[in-house]
Amino acid sequence: MADGHAGQREWRVTGMDCGSCAAKVRGAVERLPGVADVDVALMAERLRLTLDETQTPPERIEKAVRGVGFGIAAKGARPEKPKGGIVLPDGAFPDAAEAVEIDSEPKETTGPDDDAPISWVKTAKGRLVLGTGALLAAAWALRLVLPAESAHWAFVLATLVGIVPVAQRAFAMTRAGMPFTIEMLMTIAAGGALIIGEPEEAALVVFLFAVGELLEGVSAGKARDSIRALSKLVPKTARLEVGGKTREVAAEKLQVGQIVQVRPGDRVPCDGEVIDGTSGVDESPVTGESVPSLKEPGAEVFAGSINAEALLRVRVTKAAEDNTIARIVRVVEEAESARAPTERFIDRFSRVYMPAVVATAVLVAVVPPLAFGLAWGEWVYRALAVLLIGCPCALVISVPASITSALSTGARNGLLMKGGAVIEAAARTTYVAFDKTGTLTHGRPRVTDVSVLSGSADDLMALAAGVESGASHPLGQAICAEAERRGVGTVAATGGRALPGKGAEASIDGAIVCVGSPRLAEERGALTDDLRSRVAALEADGKTVVIVLCEDVPQGLIALRDEPRTDVADAVAQLHSLGISSVMLTGDNPRTAQAIADGLGIEHRSELMPEDKVTAIRELTTDARVMMIGDGINDAPALAAAHVGVAMGSGTDVALETADAAILRNRVTDVPAKIRLTRATMRNIRQNIAIALGLKAVFLVTTVLGVTGLWIAILADTGATVLVTMNALRLLFFRPAGTPEPTERIGATAE
Length: 751
Hints:
6 domains, seven-stranded mixed β-sheet, 25 helices, Alpha-Beta Plaits, elongated, disordered C terminus, Calcium-transporting ATPase, cytoplasmic transduction domain A, alpha+beta, 18% strand, single chain
């Protein structure tokens, strides 16, 4: 490929209802010259690839996708109707003429909302069900009043009318290099049944196939609707303040820095900061937190949350494409590309499985008649049934259907995960490592003690606040807040710099002033025995101590405490009930860490620099499957080193981008909730695989033995697909914060 001409392109593909549909789209385009990195997302209806337009123009990509029966439109354009339908004479059935789209360009959907649900009756698959059903019923009625031969031809007609669009798709996919598809197997089975004189059964098989495809489409639509509902949480319009007046504008056009009004009962149209007003805000649509959160000036609000009480004026802090809801939707949609190892294995397995099924059917058709002189007609019939049973649709959809439902449920409950691979890894977690500040604690420490060695307490706070002025670290911010509370003016400082893991220093009136840990003071030879005993006493109470040095001479001590979150002990207990150990990783000294850890019932490792946390995670991963929970920039390397990195929702963008998952509502109990959801998902996947393979195995044996026939065979295929999809959809009702294991059962997920 000529890299200089290659670029990424994206389309929306409509009409995909199962994993085999996505495979057909992938197969249609990946063989074209200049095409690479093909990614087809079933639930997001997305086709993304790298394309060298000097070898293949975009129009050829679109033609290839339409050629195998799907609608395609460029990203951002109105989606197309997929091809398909039932071929009937004009007027023979309502809307039949519109349904003849096999050889014509697909039509665009109509209406203001491209994603508005369409009644199944108006879809091509719905018309196929109604048409084939009506013809089958008419054939049965004719059999009651006409001679047997006339009824015979009525069933033949019903079969041909229903199988023609299926056959056309089958041959289109064969030309695209995909001969082993359910459409081809259906065509062979129905055609073979006609040849061996079983038109009634052939017509019934065609009808049942149409019903199964319709149910697949409805099920896939339900799963997609649960994801699209997220993006609809953000209101379409916002009340923008302009020149002292308000006017309604499109929410997606809001710009950072603008001021909007949010009335009681309105949804917040943007991520922003409250600048005026006090009100309770229901954030449950975004975070799943049912208790309204009090918002005052300076507080952060999320797009999609609901203002419950009083008028708020909000300054926009993020553009529409970067707000919380947009990021959630993006994570969920992109997560489809991060496929679980189980899903990748099944994809590889199905490529071998389909040819093996065809070979088995051929053997069933020819070996008994040739080797044992048995009847050709009977064994050809059984071989046709084997073909239908062997279709891997249910197996292929078993994993992505469960993954998509889990991602949607997680997003609704403030538990984001970036794909099936993350879900599978999280389900295997045996050890959870927590950062302390901002994760196990609120991240808002406050000054508790000021111990002066030289000068006054106000002088000490002025020096410390001067060094920490503009600091992003919670301890530095707490020191500045305490100085402001005391009414102490911050002294001017220059040349300020952070000392990672140790503190900060700056130049004040020509002297170097440091605010740092006792370890920094010891490194600089300033930690006397008296200081050491004072520090030990404060740390024994679980406080963090910083020492203020001026030219390496101690000026005093400042003690701070960051209270643990109220739900930490409960979260640790829940993890223990799940068979998971936990540990706290902190840069605090051993005494402070011990005091906090003892109160929470958790192991701890202390005095860890950022690189030490990475080392600790790597040590843990040698014997355990480790999930790391953190929130700060300094946690990003450790998040990346763990098997699963989880960022707290209030954390930095760096942590959120680095992490594999996120907890939006900052509740530590959501860690065990996330693990429960992932374990339930993996159980659901195993159930789906058992359903898909178990039904096929049973009916394969009964078919070869002559107990069941063609119409049961098609039920074994489409029925298994529908069962698998419906079982996966039960995860949409799963409550991650529900009853902990072992009393929780996957059979009780749809509570």
